[in-house]
Amino acid sequence: MTGALAAVAATPKADWYLMRGSGLVALVLLSATVFLGVVGTRRWQSPRWPRFVTAGLHRSVALLAVCFVALHVVTAVLDSWVGVGWLDVVVPFRSPYRPLWVGLGAVAVDLAVAVTATSLLRRHLGHRTWRAVHWASWLLWPVALVHAVGAGTDTRADWGLAVVVGCAVPVLAAAAWRLATRQPTVRQPAVRQPAARQPTGRQPIPQPRSVP
Fold this sequence. Notes:
Elements: H1 2-10, H2 14-41, H3 51-78, H4 86-90, H5 99-120, H6 127-134, H7 137-151, H8 158-180
Helix pairs in contact: 2-3, 2-7, 2-8, 5-7
């Protein structure tokens, strides 16, 4: 009986489990978002999988990933053992707990907020501005992956490592496919229009027709 009570007392809190679980789920959803984004940009489709399905799934998975990132951040702050404050979530490399790895997580959160905000405000932003910020997702994903490997405790287990590998392989394969199928842009030479002829000298005076 005493041993059972000691085991329960030594069991981590619910927020510790939520922080670990939500972090891995967020990584899986973020990887799926990047993968679907690559598929959408290459305009892949099939009779059973139209392109609008990929676009809709990409948006839904991205929104779900943001929700799990928010849950991961809140539970990390609420957990007393980790000791991460609200400022540590957005300011990188100032956390007392594993400052490098948690700092990379803060960088990932900042990038996720920027990508999400510009996606929600896409109608009010120019396409060039939105696209420039959206390219940050290619930096967001590897930073989040390294954060999960360095700061997470479950990635040291075989099943946790399998989750990380399962996230990395599809995204890297999609990136390689995109680079391999990318068509170089060929600039068309500018066609010079002939200049209009300017009248020079005297204009010929029309001669009257002779009436027979």
